[in-house]
Amino acid sequence: MRSRLPQPIRWTDAASGASLTVQVSLDPTFEKKSLIAVNATVNGTSYAYSLGAATKYYWRVAAINAGFTSEYTAAFNFTTSGSAAATVPTQVAPPNKGTNQPSLLSLKVNRTADASRYQWQVSNMPSFTVLYADEVTADTAYPGQFTGGQKFYWRVRGLNDLGSTAYSSIDTFSVMAPPSRTTLVSPANGAINVVSDSVFFTGVWWATQ
Q1: How many CB atoms are closer than 10 A to CB 83?
Q2: Shortest CA distance to 60 belongs to which of 50, 70, 51, 52?
Q3: Which of 110, 184, 189, 199 has the fewest CB atoms within 10 Å distance of its CB?
Q4: What is the rounded distance in angstroms from the CA atom of residue 112 to the CA atom of residue 91?
Q5: What is the maximal distance between C-alpha atoms in the chain?
Q6: In the predicted model, is pLDDT for residue 207 greater than 80?
Q7: What's this model's pTM, rounded to 2 decimal places?
């Protein structure tokens, strides 16, 4: 949790019985999902959430009632107080030097009090001279898809509108090798007179050399 107390955002009451979707984004168009900081369903006329320091945010609200959703309000904006981001994020997942990681893998860091977004760099080289991924998210997780059978190096830094932190330490993980091709054995291709109520399917999996 962030140490600063959250400041509520407020709106006028919606129709009776309606809940509301509240969105807060770093993107004025709200089109880039990775830059949405808040996407919450709430009741009432206010919602409190701890945001990053020294950052301009855009927010809007839509009402939901009995399966219907209103149009979003026009977006308002506000800027949080504070100074340039200084606290370096700490990696929490996957474990450093972890092996046999899945191809679809979320990289995660601890949230810091001053960053409004996080820059993720992933490379196959410890020097980061060539980047496999270089992305910015409002969330503390980066969902990536990684090539099987390879080792990756990754680091993160926090940012806000006034500046960025140093990069974190470099962690590594290795992705499991993809499965090899299976060869079909039976029923054979083009087989005829196969007994319909007792068909056994057999294949041979060839292990990676």
Answers
A1: 11
A2: 70
A3: 189
A4: 11
A5: 78
A6: no
A7: 0.80
